[in-house]
Amino acid sequence: MLEGDLEGALDIFNQATDAGDLVSYNLGIISIINGKYEAAVNYLAKSNSLNNALAMLLAGNANAALNKLDQVEDPTAKVYYLKAVIGSRLQDQNMALNNLRTAVGKDETLKAYAKTDLEFAKYFEEDTFKTIVE
User: Fold this and answer.
1) pLDDT at residue 77 is higher than 90
2) FRET partner for 97 with CA separation of 20 to 30 A, picked from 19, 59, 81, 108?
3) How many beta carbons lie within 10 A of that of residue 65, not counting itself?
4) What is the crossing angle of helices 93-106 and 77-89, to 10°?
5) How crowded is the C-beta side of 113, counted as CA atoms within 13 Å?
């Protein structure tokens, strides 16, 4: 999978389905990459992770994704960034901008990404957004 051979990785993971939760997790990652979001949600069901929340969001369930992110231990900048995206999708500007502020506070490289991320397009001209990403 790390070498980009998703098809080969999928074959190996499918052969090892009895090997435990890590196999299911990796099958979930491949499902996300392949755009099979419902399958990803099922594979990642036992994981309180960013990837599980991402699969849920991509499958159309923003509230479940947010709840899953709240269960992540030691949240990273990317967890807060995804919370910001969810806030934007839920039309909750405070949630979006507060989580974006936390995300870039943990990882300043996200500022450049957020400046052009269409998830935040409705905030591009707002002073608070500009302050966060400058």
Assistant:
1) yes
2) 59
3) 25
4) 160
5) 13
Nearest CA among 52, 43, 95, 97 for reference residue 71: 52
What are the Cα distances from residue 76, in Å, to 34, 83, 90, 122? 25, 11, 21, 25
Helix (H, G, I), strand (E, B) or coil at 16: coil
What ranges do the domains of the chain cover? 1-61, 74-134
Q: What is the pTM of this model?
A: 0.84
- What's at 79, amino acid-wise? V
The mean pLDDT value of the chain amounts to: 91
* Nearest-5° Cα angle at 12, 21 to 15: 70
Q: Are 132 and 125 in contact (CB under 8 A)?
A: no
